[in-house]
Amino acid sequence: MAPAAPAVPTAAVKSGRDSNFKDKEKSGSVRNSNIVAAKAVADAVRTSLGPRGMDKMIQSGNGDVTITNDGATILNQMSVIHPTAKMLVELSKAQDIEAGDGTTTVVVIAGALLDAAQKLLVKGIHPTAISESFQRAASQAEVILQNMATPIDLANDELLVKLATTSLNSKVVSQHSWLLAPMAVNAVKKVLDDSRPDNVDLKSIKIIKKMGDTVEESEMIDGALIDQKTMGRGGPTRVEKAKIALIQFQLSAPKTDMENQVIISDYAQMDRALKEERQYLLDLCKQIKKSGCNVVLIQKSILRDAVSELSLHFLAKMKIMVVKDIERDDIEFYSNILGCRPVASPDHMVPESLGSADLVEEISTGGDGKVIKVTGIQSSGPAVSILLRGSNKLVLEEADRSLHDALCVIRCLVKKRFLLPGGGAPEMEVACRLREKANERGGAEQYCWRAFADALELVPYTLAENAGLSPIHTVTELRTQHANGHANFGVNVRKGFVTDMKEENVVQPLLVSYNAIKQAAECVRSILKIDDIV
């Protein structure tokens, strides 16, 4: 006969139930703390959304001050410790890499979706159900955006400038958008590669920042700019009909591979050593001169001096202009724009590897700042240089970031040639259409879709709030217009009410909103899936 099962004490059953219950509570509290941390980050950047958004002053540990309202920059410089809050920093970085603009928008949408998810969790809907519903709602949102977008022709410069201006409107340098917007459009058009028509390499656009003057003095150079001074030493600072060599070897006495000492016992040996060095350098300089080169750009070297006094003296006598310390990362850019091949050894110095230009000159940029300007380049590849000016460091840095955003907006259009109205119109349209679609859904999914739609309304709400309008009144008015089929209506912060954004010339690329909703939904899904931090 089988032994009777031991009686389980009632206390043990009770404690087992309790531990089960506590575990459930724990995952809830972890999820809550994650959501609260991520929302805190989103609320920090929310006030800087839109053309009337405020700027943030960020002081880093070493005392550097940055003034900006670019979402990615703010989050990058904030010292965020909570791991979930760091996910939002990564989110804005991802948006910055993919679209370049809308970095604040993506964080605001993610914050709103987390808020919505928290309310749904309180109602007792399972996190997996919420995250899957959000995924489906985001896919539907992409379809809605695609339907309301209008195709664009890249030859229409006027429209492209309007797009770049919309991007610059929310920046500190918005009053200079009349200059920076056309500059961004022309720069991207110059570097468009016919072999890859649907992408633009922004590395081919070199922005050189110099203090002094105002932003209005900035210009796009039809040629190349080199952010270095000439070496001087009696050499020319202006060369006409230039033949330019980009060399990757050093014009200084060679070093042995290992540490060693040569002991010289008398003057004759010392003389011989110096003579040898002199002869070696003279041969190098003669080889450079023989190829017909009269401007030498030398790559930065970490092993030994790129040039020695003696070689500079020889080159100055030969009337060759010398520029040293070309960064390794810029070698490709300069070889592209100057049409020359980088030369790695003196034996390869042949006329074919030189680039030719009408004029190479050193220009002063106020103070002791100087740059070298190369104009009239004969066989220039797809590359362009921009000289940015600014009265102080903060304005200059912000102008650089703003111009980068404008360039990215034009790049977005090259990738996906569609336009959307701005001013919170796409988000509102998606919210209205999703609410209609939600009615076709059953069960908890209907709640989730509605919550997703409500969350997107935070974008127009915040735009109105930052502009000092009544957000509830504005968003209600906007919802009415969209329900009546006016898909292009958005928040007009200048006039203070709801108008047609296309007529106001406030337009943005499809890729920015498309990506923002997609990336925000993905980020929220991964935050909802976390139930414990170990």
From TrEMBL:
Signal peptide: none annotated. PROSITE patterns: TCP1_1, TCP1_2, TCP1_3. One of its GO terms (cellular component) is cytoplasm. Residues 1-13 have a biased composition (Low complexity). Belongs to the TCP-1 chaperonin family. CDD domains: TCP1_delta. SUPFAM superfamilies: GroEL apical domain-like, GroEL equatorial domain-like, GroEL-intermediate domain like. The lineage of its organism: Eukaryota, Metazoa, Ecdysozoa, Nematoda, Chromadorea. Keywords: ATP-binding, Chaperone, Cytoplasm, Nucleotide-binding. It is found in: Cytoplasm. The keyword Cytoplasm applies. The keyword Cytoplasm applies. It comes from the Eukaryota. Residues 1-28 are annotated as: Disordered. GO terms for molecular function: ATP binding; ATP hydrolysis activity; ATP-dependent protein folding chaperone; unfolded protein binding. NCBIfam families: chap_CCT_delta (TIGR02342), thermosome_alpha (NF041082), thermosome_beta (NF041083). It comes from Pristionchus fissidentatus. Gene3D superfamilies: GroEL, GroEL-like equatorial domain, TCP-1-like chaperonin intermediate domain. Residues 15-28 have a biased composition (Basic and acidic residues). This is T-complex protein 1 subunit delta. InterPro entries: Chap_CCT_delta (IPR012717), Chaperone_TCP-1 (IPR017998), Chaperonin_TCP-1_CS (IPR002194), Cpn60/GroEL/TCP-1 (IPR002423), GroEL-like_apical_dom_sf (IPR027409), GROEL-like_equatorial_sf (IPR027413), TCP-1-like_intermed_sf (IPR027410), TCP-1_chaperonin (IPR053374). Its main location: cytoplasm.
